[in-house]
Amino acid sequence: MFQNPDIAKLLLRLSLGVLILFHGIHKLIYGISGVKSMVVSAGLPEFLAYGVYVGELITPIFIILGLYARVAAAILSVNMLVAIYLAYGFSLTLSKFGGLAWETPLLYLIMSLLVVLLGSGKYAVNSK
C-alpha cells in the first residue's frame, strides 16, 4: 500500500491555502465592508476588520509555500474562530442543505489545526 505522509501534508497545505486565498482575493477586490459591519456590530473596533487581510491573504501564501506554516495556520485558526463567531455566533442553525450553516469555515478551522499539528512536511520551503 502506498503511504507518503509528506505528500498528504502537501495536499492539505495546498488545499487549505488555495481555497482560503480565493476568499482573500475576493476581499481585496471587493473590499471588507461586510466584515467591518460585523466587527462593529459585535462591539469591537472597526480596525480589527483589517485582520481579515492577514488571515485570508498573507497566511495562505505562507501555508502554500510551507514557510512557517504552523504559525500561519495557527493565525488562520484564530481568523476562522472569529469568522464563525461574527457571522454565525456558533449557533447550531442548519443550512438549507442540512449541514451546519457554518460548516465551511469549520472545515477551514479543522484543516488549519491539522497543519498546526502535523507541520509542513518535507515539501516545504523551510522543511527540516
Automatic annotation (TrEMBL):
UniProt entry keywords in alphabetical sequence: Cell membrane, Membrane, Transmembrane, Transmembrane helix
Record has Transmembrane as a keyword: yes
Transmembrane spans: 12-35, 47-68, 75-94, 106-125
InterPro entries: DoxX, DoxX-like_oxidoreductase
Membrane topology classification: Multi-pass membrane protein
Main location: membrane
GO cellular component terms, semicolon-separated: plasma membrane
Subcellular location: Cell membrane
Family: Belongs to the DoxX family.
Protein name: DoxX family protein
